[in-house]
């Protein structure tokens, strides 16, 4: 798998120079009667550290064990084992809410698949793509094309090495005074090899006689048997030709640039790269809904019809999504092809989250750094948050950091509650910070009204203040209808709460209130340079009462 999720490397083997390293330089800095330090860090260091290995609680860490996902993992394995038999596995669609272990399980399974395929020398490649990052057809295809080109090059290098070993063996064989030809000895050679070698005229099929020619000569080969005995090659020249052909193939691969080519050219390079060798290819598209949302279903359409055109290889797709609704936007053919098998990842309940946290905390924390109620509370909070293991782990890590910062010896309930508030506030800050300017102005208008003690704010009032704010910073003024939409969006993001109330014969209106901490939110808005230019907002709000 190409996506690198390797464990944190330790720095054990850092070399220190005993003679003129640390000790001397410390003495030097201590020259004079000045203290070498004023103890800025001493207090912090003296507190008993809480963490043994904090990395284990980070999202980037891939756990070796995934409790409560055995069923899902086994189901994936049952489907994918086909790849190890040289058959095409069904496509799989995996879905479940965020933090239900989809990515972790899929990566676990693909690692196992790749290592087993190596163990039994079955050609099988898994490619992982996160479509939240790689979110257009061009980028997905380009990334895949380049990955497979890389793999093909590596394969060619291995084959050439093996062939060169054969040549060397041949050399030695001749030095021992034997004859050039294989003197009819390839009885033990697989007859199909000869066939495939004989038909090996097109560059397409250069990959066919792979496994035999790729194997390194055994002792047997260098001994009495002719070194080319169990190969499809009749003589030295044939081996050399083969090496040349492989090198030529390698030269012909052209990496796809990250922009600029027409998409069909990218597709065709990708197609050829996949088809270069006989193998089963599993393409894992994580956050596949993001790809469909951003660029439609062309990529999936192209990938799912590939198998009918591939000659040497087979492709199987695993799509991973946080919700199933995206399939409504798929071409029916794509939908049925992608959803051949579906695996659901249900939310974890509080007990399951406890197990997950317990597994990790044994490694993450020092002996008795955790008080008893911490894990159950983290689990309970995260279970309310749709059973999200990521949230549970964040809570536990943040609680630990807060405890560490306050120099507590153990993490207690209080730290978990603080962590919960901090994470929630961080979320709000991030959401508000990344709002488009127009939404920020609408939100700012709501904040100004609240700060002036206006309750049950309605859309018209928001619009009036919003308009003045726009004029103040020379921004376009949207229609009241658009502003109403923006208010609904803020509602969906959980930043404001807008309820529709009936005003009898005056129709219906929205009553809007802020659902996030007002001062922090205002501070985030004012950190936007455009909004911070509005000096005195008081008159606008006054004006509301004059209207
Ligand atoms: N069953 C589990 N056991 C241990 N850790 C888990 C488990 N499920 C999820 N996690 C952890 O929770 C976090 C979120 O999981 P992830 O697989 O990224 O969720 P998803 O892809 O469904 O959003 C990751 O850090 C992952 O290691
Ligand atoms: Mg994921």
UniProtKB/TrEMBL annotation:
InterPro entries: AAA+_ATPase, Cdc6_C, Cdc6_lid, ORC1/CDC6, Orc1/Cdc6_arc, P-loop_NTPase, WH-like_DNA-bd_sf, WH_DNA-bd_sf. Pfam families: Cdc6_lid, WHD_Cdc6. Residues 443-525 form the Cdc6 C-terminal domain. One of its GO terms (molecular function) is ATP binding. Residues 88-349 form the AAA+ ATPase domain. One of its GO terms (biological process) is DNA replication. Keywords: ATP-binding, DNA replication, Nucleotide-binding. Residues 1-39, 173-238 are annotated as: Disordered. It comes from the Archaea. Residues 198-217, 224-233 have a biased composition (Polar residues). SMART domains: AAA, Cdc6_C. CDD domains: Cdc6_C (cd08768). ATP binds at residues 100-104, 348, 360. NCBIfam families: orc1/cdc6 family replication initiation protein. Involved in regulation of DNA replication. Belongs to the CDC6/cdc18 family. This is ORC1-type DNA replication protein. It comes from Natronococcus occultus SP4. The lineage of its organism: Archaea, Methanobacteriati, Methanobacteriota, Stenosarchaea group, Halobacteria.
């Amino acid at each position: 798998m190409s996506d690198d999720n390797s464990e944190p490397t330790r720095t054990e083997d850092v070399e220190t120079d005993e003679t003129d390293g640390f000790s001397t330089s410390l003495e030097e800095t201590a020259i004079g009667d000045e203290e070498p330090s004023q103890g800025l860090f001493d207090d912090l260091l003296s507190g008993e550290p809480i963490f043994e290995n904090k990395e284990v609680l980070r999202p980037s860490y891939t756990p070796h064990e995934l409790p409560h996902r055995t069923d899902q993992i086994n189901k994936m394995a049952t489907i994918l084992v086909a790849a190890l038999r040289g058959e095409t596995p069904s496509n799989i669609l995996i879905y479940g809410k965020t933090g239900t272990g989809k990515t972790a399980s899929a990566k676990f399974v693909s690692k196992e698949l790749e290592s087993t395929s190596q163990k039994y020398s079955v050609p099988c490649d898994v490619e992982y793509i996160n479509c939240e990052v790689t979110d257009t057809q061009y980028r997905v295809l380009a990334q895949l094309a380049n990955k497979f080109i890389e793999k093909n090059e590596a394969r060619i290098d291995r084959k050439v090495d093996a062939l060169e070993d054969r040549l060397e063996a041949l050399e030695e064989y001749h030095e021992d005074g034997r004859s050039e030809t294989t003197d009819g000895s390839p009885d033990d050679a697989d007859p199909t090899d000869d066939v495939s070698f004989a038909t090996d005229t097109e560059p397409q099929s250069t990959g066919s006689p792979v496994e035999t020619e790729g194997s390194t000569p055994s002792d047997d080969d260098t001994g009495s048997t002719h070194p080319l005995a169990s190969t499809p090659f009749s003589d030295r020249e044939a081996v050399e030709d083969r090496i040349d052909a492989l090198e030529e193939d390698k030269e012909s691969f052209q990496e796809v640039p990250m922009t600029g080519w027409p998409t069909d050219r990218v597709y065709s390079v990708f197609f050829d790269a996949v088809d270069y060798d006989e193998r089963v290819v599993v393409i894992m598209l994580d956050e596949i809904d993001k790809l469909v949302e951003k660029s439609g279903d062309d990529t999936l359409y192209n990938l799912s019809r590939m198998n009918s055109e591939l000659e040497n290889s087979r492709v199987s797709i695993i799509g991973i999504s946080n919700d199933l609704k995206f399939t409504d936007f798929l071409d029916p053919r794509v939908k049925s092809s992608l959803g051949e098998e579906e695996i659901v990842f249900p939310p974890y309940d509080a007990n399951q989250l406890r197990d997950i946290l317990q597994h990790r905390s044994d490694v993450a924390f020092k002996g008795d750094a955790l008080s008893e109620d911490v894990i159950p509370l983290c689990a309970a909070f995260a279970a309310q948050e749709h059973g999200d293991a990521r949230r549970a782990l964040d809570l536990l890590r943040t609680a630990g950091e807060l405890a560490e910062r306050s120099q507590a010896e153990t993490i207690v309930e209080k730290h978990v509650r603080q962590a919960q508030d901090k994470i929630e506030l961080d979320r709000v800050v991030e959401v508000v910070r990344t709002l488009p300017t127009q939404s920020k102005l609408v939100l700012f208008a709501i904040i100004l009204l609240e700060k002036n003690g206006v309750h049950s704010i309605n859309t018209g009032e928001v619009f009036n203040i919003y308009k003045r704010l726009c004029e103040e910073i020379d921004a376009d003024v949207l229609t009241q209808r658009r502003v109403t939409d923006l208010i609904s969006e803020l509602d969906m993001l959980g930043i404001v709460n807008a309820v529709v109330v009936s005003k009898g014969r005056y129709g219906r209106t929205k009553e809007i209130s802020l659902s996030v901490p007002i001062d922090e939110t205002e501070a985030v808005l004012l950190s936007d340079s455009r909004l911070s230019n509005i000096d005195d907002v008081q008159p606008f709000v006054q004006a509301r009462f004059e209207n």
